[in-house]
Amino acid sequence: MIRAFLTFMLLAQIAAGCCSVSKQPGRPIEDPFLSQGLRQKLERLYPRSFQASHRCILEASGRQFVLEGYLRVYEPQSFKLLAKGDMGGTVFELQQVKGENPVVVKNPVSLRPSWLLEGAARDISVLYFRSPQPQARLVRFQTGDIGLVQEVKSGIWEEFRFEPKTGRMLAYILTQGEEPFYRADFGYFEALSPGGPEVPRTITIVDHRMHYRLTVRGVEIAEITGNP
Question: What confidence category does residue 197 fall into, taking pLDDT thresholds of 50, 70 and 90?
Fold first, then answer.
């Protein structure tokens, strides 16, 4: 009886371990030239240093909030973000310098710091700083999209999805157990200047874990030259 019980427990642990193995999203493709091209597309999605103003609609807890965002992004992995309400008052201000942990500079309405750092600051990092590592795999998804995927933590996969014909960035997705829990979709691409690179004018972010939806519409985006 004891031996049978121990055997059962051992098999249960093996089965649990097998179930915890996370399946890589998509079907692998071997095309180094295409992979490199997608990486370059992502690197050139935005100027290395720029300033932008956005009109944002945040939906959370059954309510809707309108925000005006003033963003300044500069190398290396640095940003300043000022968010104002639709009446013009400051809602919060965040800053990150040289890839260090972001900090809350101003928070006059006493929002939860965790929401600002794990939500707003994380959104900035996703949109402007995240990139596939050298070991990221080129794949094709069931939708027909192509992308680069990498496991960022045990069981959590990061997906950079592209339109197969143009190589245009479509979405950034985080999945666990084959279920997406964070997604940013890029749309309405437009050039900053005649003949210049096209950047997404609309971005929609849905975070199922923090329970919010953010729609970002770019009002103005301008490249910064010289020292920021």
Answer: confident
Cα pseudo-dihedral 173, 175, 181, 185, rounded to 10: 10
Residue 76 preceded by cis peptide, ω within 30: yes
Q: pTM for the complete prediction? A: 0.85
On whether residue 224 sits in a domain, the answer given is: no
| Count: domains in the chain | 1
Cβ neighbours of residue 1 under 8 Å, at least 6 residues apart?
none
Query: SS3 for 209?
Result: coil
CATH number for the domain spanning 127: value is 2.50.20.10
Domain of residue 118, residue span: 22-217
Between CA 73 and CA 67 the distance in angstroms is: 19
